[in-house]
Amino acid sequence: MAQMISTMPMVDAAPAVSAIMASKLPQSACLDAPASGGITVVSRQHVRPDAASAMADLTLSVSDLPMLSCHYIQKGLFFPAPDLPMSSLVSLLVSSLSRALAAVPALAGRLVTLPDDRIVIRCNDAGVDFLHAVAPGLSLDDFLVPDADVPTKLTKDLFPMDRTVSYEGHRRPLTSFQVTVLRDGAVFIGIVANHAVVDGTSFWHFFNTWAAICRGDSPTPLDFRRNFFGDSTAVLRFHGGVGPAVTFDADAPLRERVFHFSADAIREMKAIANRRPGGGGGGHDAEVYGKMAHDPKNNPESRGEISSFQSLCAQIWLAVTRARKRLSPDATTTFRMARGDDGDGVGLARHDLRWAAGKLNASLAAYGDGAIRRAAAAWQAKPGCFPLGNPDGSVITMGSSNRFPMYEGNDFGWGRPLAVRSGRANKFDGKMSAFPGHAGDGSVDIEVCLPPETMAALLRDAEFMQYVSCPSHLL
User: In whole angstroms, what is the distance from residue 65 CA to residue 414 CA?
Assistant: First the structure.
């Protein structure tokens, strides 16, 4: 992946001398014109923390190292038009970003491989890139189209460092930032962050930190220590400094769509998932539910109530499996959750929402502290990168979380975010991401990536689509 190159050199400087270094061009010039057109980078600044870091090296942990083969996280937010000049907005965002990096200096550092092959985050204040882009021919309505696919040819240009693999943090910034101003004045703020350095929780915590500083509030400190599993001697070795590649075909054709599920629809799915099987079901289902009821692992009294999100995931699992026409009726399918555990691999064709939700619930309930530590020990015995992807076409991988503070806490001073969108990072057949609904009422948005023929079949699935609606703020 070619790096975006400034037409002006950047002069290095110590943080005490200059926290911000800029390469600026007139509005008519262009640093990087994307192939799709529409979005043009007009300035690029290299931003450093406004105070020198005293933080020691942070060794990548058991949960960090496997992510070195993943793309950088790409997430961002659309905002209403601010009521201040764009030059003032950019200056405000850059100065507050410099202060936020001082609060979380690891994000301004670089990865370093030590002589013993341990990989560390060196908090050396090397800095990050901040890009200012404009889209004079595009408005918010071009990006947020109700009942339509995400216009990925446009959204990919809202983010720098497209498809950069996390191992490249040895030579590239660990985070990069882009603010894009649309024709109607709406603003998109995108963050790209090394996936071996941050997870979803710390990503959105930093987003909140930056927003809080920008609007004049004091942020909550972030604990960046990586000692949950204690000191590990496991290392990943990459000979010759050549890092890993992603484990999936990043160029496979995909359709992407954000499905909105209202709080009422989710409550209905949850009620179905928790409903005890009654009379009249007969035959095969009666036998299946009978076995589940007497299995301690699956018994509702022992596992607790099936949650709203588990119920929603089960509905998606069933619907996507139906839409995958190439799967045989007895194919084994798998639902993976971002917390690192796998839902049971089972043939779904004969089962319904209650059964699928019960399988997810039991799998998640079994994945407690002991299971996590056993998985960590197994990885240390045989280290390797995390195998993202869907090699046999039967897997769903759910990432992100509807509990992350994407809308709450991310007001930069001129209004609450309007919508969340992501870039092309880590997307493949069956990759999904959960976002909170904009209204904050318990609704959920699920970003779904599927091959064109599978997406078309899913959209024709009345059993699934009855639960999908358009969020009120897009009507």
Answer: 38
